[in-house]
Specification:
It is a single chain. By secondary structure, the protein is an alpha+beta fold. Among the domains are: 164 residues, Calcium-transporting ATPase, cytoplasmic transduction domain A, CATH 2.70.150; 185 residues, no CATH class; 177 residues, HAD superfamily/HAD-like (Rossmann fold); 239 residues, no CATH class. The protein is built from 40 helices and 37 strands. β35, α25 and β36 form a beta-alpha-beta unit. The relative contact order is 0.11. Its main location: membrane. Belongs to the cation transport ATPase (P-type) (TC 3.A.3) family. Type IV subfamily. Keywords: ATP-binding, Lipid transport, Magnesium, Membrane, Metal-binding, Nucleotide-binding, Translocase, Transmembrane, Transmembrane helix, Transport.
Length: 1209
């Protein structure tokens, strides 16, 4: 029994969550996890391991094989996979990207197949077939064919337009070019023609077309600088370095052409930061890691050219693997609409069955004994009833709205264009309009409950700005003049006296400039001197201008600030740094750089001034600046202690003199706090999911007003304790797994108070029981298990799953009680997991917004994904449903376009069902007077054109243009959005109200004309009570009624709406008189049989009186109910409409005042710091320095900064 337990997969609970680290990579293998912990190897395992080592070695994680310059190698049979029956394809993907669905030959069959997968379309196709059977149909075949062709045609055109756009996008990417070795020389080739094993050449500013192994480059030691914004959202540059042997031997074209290296590496996966492999070349093996791999989506920067070997292509690349599965998204209304169509199917079947039974009974009682009804057929009443069942299925088919789906698609398409055309969501600075990348989700924008947002680049600009500083106890940065007098309005500082100033720094404290220029306070100059020398920033010159490239944005902001204040960093070499001190250039020797790491959280340099004194400068990452002078012998002694480097750093960084501190800001995007506040008033909860550290995330929470000083913050350990207590309570009540225990919903927190949750990725895994699992290393015995053991193991797994599910549900319930949730240090997979948990357990509509490739999975998981097209590339936009340039546009997307789309779609659906019920159920009432014979109450052509011409345009325009309040009022009163969250405007209750309204309208439409036609004589002595005149009267009253009804439903009147309503009525009468004319009857006598009916019936005043009476009885009760509803049970929208003139004159909504409390200190912002070791080693080693250049021309860049080569002076 112990063996069974040991072999189970168990949760690793040995380690405490670490808030400072990002959890395991999404695709870590069991072996990698096993390697992370040092455990004592059992003796039996040692014996087994030694036995395994005697076998042929095999690395199961390195099964991907690549042969350089040998395409035939990858076409061998054992690399082929069976795709379909005997059709095989290589396991190595080609480099072409395919997102389109159709081609010239497959469009028609595939599109028709997809359209007929819709139940409604298939239903009408079956009806069309049934109508071709004379014994069944009493309705002409064209009454179904014309609307069906229209629906199929419009949908096909829309699908074609969308697919053509996808073809163009694919073609643009696939036809990009780069140079590939072919026939011993580099030749230009398209991306789609690149294959695994090809050797390619890339130039500066080229996109990397595939995942490649860097072989060599134009830079020293084959360094290559890349921008990874498309991958990880980071705008700073990173450096990659090739193997020393490939740098040495693979620089020329001829050697690259003969390169025959062989690579064994890991299979394609989504781990952007890991790579494991081995290069076999020249009878030697060389280990490969992620630092030698250039990933697809990167951009080559500041490197003239580089060479690489393609390892993964196309769909196998890490960016494609990391993009997550594309999900087909449908709105909540879509699902509800489908269920309602199914309900209509059931009602239609029941009505047809009931009427068929009625016909069988009538045949038995009346039809068989009425000689004048004999049709020459001797069928039994039951058989006639069976035939009539199908006849009524055809007659009543318009209960199922054939044009519903295509009308919905047209409305959504129009709404999408309105979003694209909205100039208030256009970002002029970057010429970026809003873009609806899908046309199927617009109304769901008005039902959002939860927003999941990335931080950097989404809430913030990802641009650091120097704001203030404190030097020798004096704070600088307020609005004041050179005499130290404060002013509310003062001009910016003029930096024109400084030739190196970039003109981008907005600073208003003229007194600081006075202090720098006068030199009265030597600490002020010393402060900016330290900023200019203590860093790892790189510099180059372009057109005489200095360009800085920094390891982190804050570092670049500080060096830029020093530059503007007169202390400009000019150049550096391996051992020196040159700066301009108020116009005087000085070069200092750099003896050592004590690099930043996450433990010390600071960096220092040890330098020697021209006067031969050694000084140590320190920039703590809390932005405090310190210095001291040290003896030369102390420095020499320190540098010889490599075995205790960190200890040496600590020794040197003692007894420092504090000089001052800086205040820099990662500025929020414009309007972020206002947007969050408005969305909160709409009862939308915002969760921030970020990979940044906890302190960073918390500071951003305060900056964007998700958190206030009154907020009680709960951290991971607090949440863990609460959830543990809840699980214990649930277990004590009868067990988490008790089937019949009544659910008890108890709040986690006492009522009142403002609470927020801040949790790290490590704690998230701990709480949700999502920690990576390890297999036990104890030997698994090979004897067979008993049935009892198998049962116990299955039960154990079920209990673990049930515990995990309950724990996750409890966490979601707890988090949703908080006003704000911030998840930090989370992986892309965890972001998607959090979104999925809320979708699963709260059944709420979710929206995810981000701007980096690491947000793609989250964006695809949410009901609606929004991409910010900003600093961090376009990968998030490619995964999104909607995109724009600034976070503040989200409020307009949801509160204006979302709300309008929701109310328009709800009104459209309610009216659409109503008008079809009112139209179709007249046949039902008519059946009681025609022996249930499936005789139609209207002319065939009226049935054909009713949904196509007579009632389609007004409802479409309402679905496109209607609005209950203006956009300004919608933004001013975000509480309107709550109606959509609660599904109040369209649900089953509203559906049945529409059904009942349609039933009552159909009764009025039938029985008032019926009563008027009984025993009547026309004014000219002719009887108007014939069937055809009766059909014309009902049809005329129906068209007028349903068009007047949509007028009552319209809130926003325009000329177009009015024209469509009255135009539809006029169109009906015009077409009817043409169809009933004698001329068309002569041409098509069997198709147009109502000859002269319209002109004969409608010249009778009695008929017009009947029509007016019918329309009045249908409409007046609706008017009365609407009046009572708006006066007694007025909704929020009704109240706003009533007072809209007064509201327009009032002051617009203002941002709420921040709460000031005594004793509450301002929060230190530290959220732009680098979280990894800097690049001091790269600088001090000289690996990136061009040996033959002078020091001022030796321009290098660190791993996240831009590297630019300059020409010889």
């Amino acid at each position: 029994m112990s063996t069974e337990r040991d072999s189970e997969t168990t949760f690793d609970e040995d380690s405490q969550p670490n808030d400072e680290v990002v959890p395991y990579s999404d695709d870590e293998t069991e072996d990698e996890l096993d390697d992370q912990g040092s455990t004592v190897e059992p003796e039996q395992n040692r014996i087994n391991r030694e036995a395994e080592e005697n076998r042929e070695p095999f690395r199961k994680e390195c099964t991907w094989q690549v042969k350089a310059n040998d395409r035939k190698y990858h076409e061998q049979p054992h690399f082929m996979n069976t795709k379909f029956f005997c059709i095989k394809e290589s396991k190595y993907a080609n480099n072409a990207i395919k997102t389109y669905k159709y081609n010239v030959f497959t469009f028609i069959p595939m599109n028709l197949f997809e359209q007929f997968k819709r139940a409604a379309n298939l239903y009408f196709l079956i009806l069309l077939i049934l109508q071709a059977i004379p014994q069944i149909s009493t309705l002409a075949w064209y009454t179904t064919l014309v609307p069906l062709l229209l629906v199929l045609g419009v949908t096909a055109i829309k699908d074609l337009v969308d697919d053509v756009a996808r073809h163009k996008m694919d073609k643009e990417i696939n036809n990009r070019t780069c140079e590939v070795i072919k026939d011993g020389r580099f030749k230009v080739a398209k991306w789609k023609d690149i294959q695994v094993g090809d050797v390619i050449r890339l130039k500066k500013n080229d996109f990397v077309p595939a995942d490649i192994l860097l072989l060599s480059s134009s830079e020293p030691n084959s360094l290559c600088y890349v921008e990874t914004a498309e991958l990880d959202g980071e705008t700073n540059l990173k450096f990659k370095m090739s193997l020393e042997i490939t740098d040495q031997y693979l620089q020329r074209e001829d050697t690259l052409a003969t390169f025959d290296g062989f690579i064994e590496c890991e299979e394609p996966n989504n781990r952007l930061d890991k790579f494991t492999g081995t290069l076999f070349w020249r009878n030697t093996s060389f280990p490969l890691d992620a630092d030698k791999i250039l990933l697809r989506g990167c951009v080559i920067r500041n490197t003239d050219f580089c060479h690489g070997l393609v390892i993964f292509a196309g769909a196998d690349t890490k960016i494609m693997k990391n993009s997550g599965k594309t999900r087909f998204k449908r709105t909540k209304i879509d699902y509800l609409m489908n269920y309602m169509v199914y309900t209509i199917f059931v009602v239609l079947t029941l009505l047809s069955a009931g009427l068929a039974i009625g016909h069988a009974y009538w045949e038995a009682q009346v039809g068989n004994y009425s000689w004048y009804l004999y049709d020459g057929e001797d069928d039994t009443p039951s058989y006639r009833g069976f035939l009539n069942f199908w006849g009524y299925i055809i007659v009543l088919n318009t209960m199922v709205p054939i044009s519903l789906y295509v009308s919905v698609e047209v409305i959504r398409l129009g709404q999408s264009h309105f979003i694209n055309w909205d100039l208030q969501m256009y970002y002029a600075e970057k010429d970026t309009p809003a873009k609806a990348r899908t046309t199927t989700l617009n109304e769901q924008l008005g039902q959002i409950h939860y927003i999941f947002s990335d931080k950097t680049g989404t809430l913030t600009q990802n641009i650091m700005t120097f704001k203030k500083c404190c030097i020798n106890g004096q704070i600088y940065g307020d609005h004041r003049d050179a005499s130290q007098h404060n002013h509310n309005k003062i001009e910016q500082v003029d930096f024109s006296w400084n030739t190196y100033a970039d003109g981008k720094l907005a600073f208003y404290d003229h007194y600081l400039i006075e202090q720098i220029q006068s030199g009265k306070e030597p600490e002020v100059r010393q402060f900016f001197f330290l900023l200019a020398v203590c860093h790892t920033v790189m510099v180059d010159r372009t057109d005489g201008q200095l360009n800085y490239q920094a390891a982190s944005p804050d570092e670049g902001a500080l060096v830029n600030a020093a530059r503007n204040f007169g202390f400009a960093f000019l150049a550096r070499t391996q051992n020196t740094i040159t700066i301009s001190e108020l116009g005087t250039e000085r070069t200092y020797n750099v003896l050592a750089i004590l690099d930043f790491n996450s433990d010390r959280k600071r960096m220092s340099i040890i330098g020697k001034s021209p006067s031969e004194s050694i000084f140590a400068n320190e920039t703590l990452r809390t932005l405090c600046l310190c210095y001291k002078e040290i003896e030369e012998n102390n420095f020499v002694a320190s540098t010889n202690r490599d075995e205790a480097l960190d200890k040496v750093y600590e020794e040197i960084e003692k007894d420092l003199i504090l000089l001052g501190a800086t205040a820099i800001e990662d500025k929020l995007q414009d309007g972020v706090p206002e947007t969050i506040s408005k969305l909160a008033k709409a009862d939308i909860k915002i969760w921030v999911l970020t990979g940044d550290k906890k302190e960073t995330a918390e500071n951003i929470g305060f900056a964007c007003e998700l958190l206030t000083e009154d907020t009680t913050i709960c951290y991971g350990e607090d949440i863990n304790s609460l959830l543990h207590a809840r699980m214990e309570n649930q277990r004590n009540r009868g067990g988490v797994y008790a089937k019949f225990a009544p659910p008890v919903q108890e709040p986690f927190f006492p009522p009142g108070g403002n609470r927020a949750l801040i949790i790290t990725g490590s704690w998230l895994n701990e709480i949700l029981l999502e920690k990576k699992t390890k297999r036990s290393k104890i030997l698994k015995l090979k004897f067979p298990r008993t049935e009892e053991e198998r049962r116990m193991r299955t039960q154990s797994k079920r209990r673990l799953e049930a515990k995990k599910e309950q724990r996750q549900k409890n966490f979601v319930d707890l988090a949703c009680e908080c006003s704000a949730v911030i998840c930090c240090r989370v992986t892309p997979k965890q972001k998607a997991m959090v979104v999925d948990l809320v979708k699963r357990y709260k059944k709420a509509i979710t929206l995810a917004i981000g701007d980096g490739a690491n947000d793609g999975n989250m964006i695809k998981t949410a009901h609606i994904g929004v991409g910010i097209s900003g600093q961090e590339g376009m990968q998030a936009v490619m995964s999104s449903d909607y995109s724009f340039a600034q976070f503040r546009y989200l409020q307009r997307l949801l509160l204006v376009h979302g709300w309008w789309s929701y109310i328009r779609m709800c009104k459209f659906l309610r009216y659409f069902f109503y008008k079809n019920f009112a139209f179709t159920l007249v046949h039902f009432w008519y059946s009681f007077f025609n022996g249930y014979s499936a005789q139609t109450a209207y002319e065939d052509w009226f049935i054909t054109l009713y949904n196509v011409l007579y009632s389609s345009l007004p409802v479409l325009l309402m679905g496109l243009l209607d609005q209950d309040v203006s956009d300004k009022l919608s933004l001013r009163f975000p509480g309107l959005h709550i109606v959509g969250q609660r599904d109040l405007l369209f649900n089953y209750k509203r559906f049945f109200v529409s059904l009942l309204h349609g039933v009552l309208t159909s009764m009025i439409l039938f029985f008032i004309p019926l009563g008027a036609y009984l025993q009547t004589v026309g004014q000219d002595g002719e009887a108007p009570s014939d069937y055809q005149s009766f059909a014309v009267t009902i049809a005329s009253a129906l068209v007028i009624t349903v068009n007047f009804q949509i007028g009552l439903d319209t809130s926003y009147w325009t000329f177009v709406n009015a024209f469509s309503i009255f135009g539809s009525i006029a169109l009906y009468f015009g077409i009817m008189f043409d169809i009933h004319s004698a001329g068309i009857h002569v041409l098509f006598p069997s198709t147009f049989q109502f000859t002269g009916t319209a002109s004969n019936a409608l010249r009778q005043p009695y008929i017009w009186l009947t029509i007016i009476l019918t329309v009045a009885v249908c409409s007046l009760p609706v008017v009365a109910i609407r009046f009572l509803s708006m006066t007694i049970w007025a909704s929020e929208s009704d109240k706003i409409q009533k007072h809209r003139k007064r509201l327009k004159a009032e002051e617009q909504w203002q941002r709420r005042q921040q709460v000031f409390r005594r004793g509450v200190s301002s929060r230190r912002s530290a959220y732009a710091f680098s979280h990894q070791r800097g690049y001091a080693d790269l600088i001090s080693s000289g690996r990136s320095i061009r040996k033959k250049r002078s020091p001022l021309d030796a321009i290098v860049a660190d791993g996240t900064a831009e590297y630019r080569r300059t020409g010889d002076s």
